[in-house]
Design brief:
Elements: H1 8-20, H2 24-46, H3 53-67, H4 77-99, H5 117-122, H6 127-136, H7 139-150, H8 155-162, H9 166-185
Length: 189
């Protein structure tokens, strides 16, 4: 009779059940196994605002702890946790955008000439330069660009989640892209 080895899903489910049963060793293993991937994921999504990483990772673990009794082992535990992390990062961006005022000193319409922002951000060789530029932008511009191009959110979805109008988000994105372009084309940044 062939021997069947436990699968990762089986061991993930067993670990989750042990944590729910308040097994301290299992809880320590759970945190030790998944904290580094969670930190890497959240850190990559919040660049360059790393001061929020610890808080968001803590929120992920707290949410996971509360939801762990419902984990059924249908997906790897790491994927399940990264899904929670993705939602927490989205919540973070939504809250930050909701609370930042729209700049009223910019023109309503700006020309959209210059390099294609999507193509520029997708180039691996430009990531470091883009990170520097994002750091130099006003926070509202940085957040809206990260949410749009890093998290791939549409203007309509961003508007719905922040309570702003789609037109306001589109104007904000246009101003943010224009400011990014100016800094991109300035060699001193």
């Amino acid at each position: 009779m062939p021997v069947t080895l436990p699968t990762t899903l089986d061991s993930d489910l067993a670990l989750a059940q042990a944590v729910v049963a308040r097994d301290r060793k299992a809880a320590a293993e759970f945190v030790q196994t998944h904290s580094d991937p969670l930190y890497r994921y959240v850190r990559s999504r919040l660049q360059p605002r790393f001061e929020f990483v610890d808080d968001i990772v803590q929120e992920v673990f707290l949410t996971a702890w509360k939801s762990l009794p419902r984990y059924r082992g249908e997906a790897p535990l790491r994927s399940w946790l990264l899904g929670i992390a993705r939602h927490k990062v989205e919540d973070h961006y939504r809250e930050r955008l909701r609370n930042l005022p729209l700049p009223d000193d910019a023109e309503d319409t700006l020309p959209l000439s210059g390099p294609d922002l999507d193509a520029t951000l997708d180039q691996a060789r430009a990531q470091q330069a883009a990170g520097k530029i994002l750091t130099a932008l006003p926070e509202v511009y940085r957040l809206v660009l990260l949410w749009r191009y890093w998290e791939h959110r549409s203007a309509e979805e961003m508007a719905e989640r922040t309570g702003k109008t789609p037109k306001a988000i589109e104007r904000l994105l246009a101003r943010a892209r224009q400011e990014f372009r100016v800094l991109w084309l300035t060699p001193s940044v």
